[in-house]
Amino acid sequence: MEKKMNKWSVEWPTLPLQDAAVKVEQLRQELFALRLGVRFSHNPLFSTNQRALKKEIARGLTYISQVLNAAERVQ
């Protein structure tokens, strides 16, 4: 059975600090855009997706911490 990959679920064994900084900045921008979508949407259909978006944001924050932990292991 093939496992479906989630963009937040990649494990980083080690990651150079500079690469981690670039990756974290990209993720920060993605999460900021998601958060804006949650905060400023007044569409009643969209509000049903807010819980899913909040879970995606939480997964993204976990992923960022994994990237930073991998960078710490390199140093």
Separation, N- and C-terminal Cα atoms: 37 Å
Strand content: under 5%
- Please describe the biggest sheet, giving its number of strands, its sense, and whether it closes into a barrel: none
**Strands, count:** 0
What is the N-to-C order of secondary-structure elements (H for helix, E for strand)?
A: HHH
Instruction: Give the helix level as a range of percent.
Output: over 70%
Gyration radius over CA: 15 Å
Secondary structural class = mainly alpha
Number of helices: 3
* Uncertain parts: 1-5
Backbone shape: elongated
Mean pLDDT across the residues is 68
When the domains are counted, the total is: 1
Outline of this structure?
With 75 residues, the chain is mainly alpha-helical. It has helices at residues 17-40, 44-47, 50-74.
